[in-house]
Amino acid sequence: MIRYIRYAFLAVIAVVLVAIAAANREAVSLQLLPEGLADIAGWNFMLELPLFLVIFASVIAGLLIGFVWEWMREHKHRAEARRQKHAAQSLNREVEKLRGEKHKGKDEVLALLESNG
């Protein structure tokens, strides 16, 4: 059921994107620098693209910038989780070492029964 809802949602998104593309087919000029600054710099980069490509590229660029920003923001949380994981592993090794020392010299069957019980 959820799979069909997902497919319906993706179909609606596809129809909306096609409608936006069909409605915004006219070409627009994109310039890297404003005219005054381009005259001072001595060069001007200009590109003619359909408006829907500019819209879609802007949305994709915004998503990518947001993903990278969020990944950098969460770095401290990932680092802390990694530190806690290493500390827990170290403590587990120490506990196993101490358990081995506690049962040293005892009968193996009795040591297993004590450690499980």
Structure summarized in a few sentences:
This protein is mainly α and 117 residues long. It has five helices and two strands; from the N terminus they run αβαβααα.
Defining traits:
9% strand, single chain, 117 residues, mainly alpha
Descriptive account of the structure:
- The structure is a single chain.
- The protein has 117 residues and is mostly helical.
- The protein has one domain (1-115).
- Helices cover 76% and strands 9% of the residues.
- It contains five helices and two strands, in the order αβαβααα.
- It has helices spanning 2-23, 35-41, 51-73, 75-102, 108-116; strands at residues 27-31, 46-50.
- The protein has a two-stranded antiparallel sheet with strand order 1-2.
- The longest helix is centred in the last third of the chain and has 28 residues, at 75-102.
The number of distinct structural domains comes to 1
Q: How much β-strand is present in the residues?
A: 5-15%
What is the molecular shape? Answer: elongated
Main beta sheet strand tally, sense and closure: 2 strands, antiparallel
- String of helices and strands: HEHEHHH
Q: Order of strands in the sheet with the most strands?
A: 1-2
Share of helical residues: over 70%
What is the structural class?
mainly alpha
Mean pLDDT: 88
Radius of gyration: 31 Å
For the secondary structure, the number of strands is: 2
Helix tally equals: 5
Low-confidence stretches: none
Give the distance, in angstroms, between the N- and C-terminal Cα atoms.
47 Å
Keywords: Cell membrane, Coiled coil, Isomerase, Membrane, Transmembrane, Transmembrane helix
GO molecular function, one term: isomerase activity
Domain Lipopolysaccharide assembly protein A: 24-96
Protein name: Putative phosphoribosylanthranilate isomerase
